[in-house]
Amino acid sequence: MVKYFNCTGSLKATWDQVSQAFWQRYPNPYSNHVLTEDIIFREVTPDNRLLSRRLLTKISRVPRWAEKFFPSHMARKAYIIEDSVVDPQERTMVTFTWNISHARLMSVEERCVYTGSLDNSNLTEVKREAWISSNLYGFSRAVQEFGLARFKSSIVKTMKGFEYVLAKMQGETPTRTLAETATEKARETALAAKEKAKDLASQAQKKQYV
Amino acid sequence: MNSVGESCTELKREYDQCFNRWFAEKFLKGDRGDDPCTEVFKKYQTCVQKAIKEKNIPIDNVEFMGPNKEKPGS
């Protein structure tokens, strides 16, 4: 069974600006979970479309109840592939993104289409679709629900990150407030501390049995 | 942004800079002249593909634009 989700949003920038910002998205203040980013394939087709494949390493957060399904040494890192086709003639950019690690536990596939809007050239439309599935026997429904909730909240971050990069490229001061930055930092610090505590606890537990 | 191969980050930065300029000034304008980033891209790829092998990241045989194009809902 696959859970399907779609939504539409827009960015206040021309399609040209959005397609340029797409390659300069990381890092941004909303992308602390993205650790590495690489281009691993790139080609211009004879009809002048740009094909690219990007490899990303992200920290993936799992709920407590799901932690037992992850081997502890690989628990928090996930490898993501993002393929894209940029067509400057048609003013469209299509991206397809999915995880290549932990895919049996949960697979999230996302397709985005960025189109320059016809009536307002300073607006770029983003159509987003996602397919979330799990092969975890007995738990697939719960994992899918969790995956969908996490996916939805990640969209907000993605769009905010995009807006931040666009503003920066256009030489504006990004609108993110100091309070927002502080809250986010506090959350990240708390999370890091929690992970550290967990590591220490599991080490202590191991020692007890030695 | 860092590369997955720690030693490739500097090459990646150099390539990104070259690419971003080419993308904005040539590609988007339909200019199909010589790609000035070819050399640095090759160097960067040698480095990053080696790192991917060393880390056993499973990127082989993955079809472009997704493992499965027949999707419900779309």
From TrEMBL, chain A:
Q: Which domain of life is it from?
A: Eukaryota
What would be the name of the gene that encodes this protein?
Answer: PRELID1
Mind telling me which PROSITE patterns this protein's record contains?
PRELI_MSF1
Q: Please provide, in alphabetical order, the Gene Ontology terms of the cellular component aspect for this entry.
A: mitochondrial intermembrane space
User: Where is the PRELI/MSF1 domain positioned along the sequence?
Assistant: 2-174
Organism whose genome encodes this protein = Ictalurus punctatus (Channel catfish)
Q: Which InterPro entries match?
A: PRELI/MSF1_dom, Slowmo/Ups
- Mind telling me what this protein is named? PRELI domain containing 1a
Automatic annotation (TrEMBL), chain B:
From which source organism is this entry?
A: Ictalurus punctatus
| Entry's family note | Belongs to the TRIAP1/MDM35 family.
In the record, biological process GO terms are: phospholipid translocation
Q: What's in the GO CC field? A: cytosol; mitochondrial intermembrane space; nucleus
Supply the alphabetized keyword list. Answer: Disulfide bond
Query: What name appears for this protein in its UniProt entry?
Result: TP53-regulated inhibitor of apoptosis 1
Catalysed transformations (reactions): a 1,2-diacyl-sn-glycero-3-phosphate(in) = a 1,2-diacyl-sn-glycero-3-phosphate(out)
A molecular function (GO) held by this record is: phosphatidic acid transfer activity
